[in-house]
Amino acid sequence: MGGDYAPEEVVKGCLLAHRELGLESILVGDRERIEPILQREGFQGRLEVVHAPEVVQMEETPSNVLRKKSSSLYVAGKLVKEGRADGLVSAGNTGAVLTVGKFVIGSIEELERPAIGVALPNPKGKTVLIDVGANVDCKPLHLLHFAVIGHTYAEEILGISRPRVGILSIGEEEGKGNELVKETYPLLKASRLNFVGNAEGRDIYAGTFDVIVCDGFVGNIILKASESLGFAVLHMIKEEVQKSFLAKVGALLMRPALNSFKKKADFTEYGGIPLLGAEKPVIITHGRANAKAIRNAIKVANEFLTHRFNERLAENIKTLIPQEVKARWA
Predict the structure, then answer these.
(1) Inter-CA distances, 54 with 1, 65, 91, 159, 284, Å
(2) Predicted confidence (pLDDT) at residue 247 exceeds the cutoff of 80
């Protein structure tokens, strides 16, 4: 029931995932609003509807979801925790989704905290930036775990062999950065990750690192600034094109390239961003998610299941972090 266009677009997205991908959804929310949409869309198959009369509003404090036990988000989290569903997709209150992921579904045993990772485009492929909002106050051990999570994401989901890991700082030399960065650096260096040092802001989109680690406060600012910049660039290009006939002709010739760029910047293509390290896949999609975005978010959740992401992550936490490093920071 979360998102600007719920439940209409959410239900339609679930139907797209069922028809095009063969993936079934449990629709959690107000039955009286969901079932008429299914009828109107002429759906003949079987999708389970679980009634949940309450909604966690966008402006609510995220922790309210733990008190609203009949809300669609809390009920959906319980279905995942109990094994009735294999993952959670929501376009609702991001903080509330994180709260459900952390405290209702829970983290895998080896991790102190799950993190949000996002795969940002670069000229050579993708760079995983982690964390981008799940944890604003972090300790060095948390960032070490985020690095392992990002490594696993890059390797298992993006297919990058031996991903190059860096920690975001204000200079490439060892010793640069705030206290958190300087304390985390030796942990990453002592790990069995392919750690190649400090990454600067310019490296995020350059393709020089496959995984860049930061705390969620910094990462969330980068993510939102990047999203805004992408749309701002497109808007400025459109304005300039309207200023002359030659520019319009040039834009016509460049249309395939511009459409390709727009596709890379379009959140509906990616579906959503994952809360990595939760016991089951949790995909947080945009509040403005339409049916296409919901369909793709369900696809992403399924990819984490088929790649056995959590099993590989649990193995990597054990094998990539030496025992002496764990003991030092336990």
Answers:
(1) 9, 10, 15, 40, 19
(2) no
Question: Under CATH, to which class is 8-111+277-307 assigned?
Answer: alpha beta
Collapsing DSSP states into helix, strand and coil, what is residue 168? strand
Residue type (1 letter), 96? A
Half-sphere exposure of 323 (CA within 13 A, CB side): 0
CB burial readout 311-326, b (16+ within 10 A) else e: ebbbebbeebbeeebe
Tens of pLDDT, residues 35-59: 999 989 988 777 899 999 999 998 8
Instruction: Report the CATH superfamily, name and number, of domain 115-267.
Output: Isopropylmalate Dehydrogenase (3.40.718.10)
Q: Where in the chain is the domain with CATH 3.40.718.10?
A: 8-111+277-307, 115-267
**CA dist., res. 13 & res. 36, Å (int):** 15
User: Is residue 194 classed as helix, strand or coil in its secondary structure?
Assistant: coil
Distance set, CA 16 to CA 51, 92, 296 (Å) = 21, 19, 9
Lowest mean pLDDT among 21-25, 197-201, 325-329: 325-329
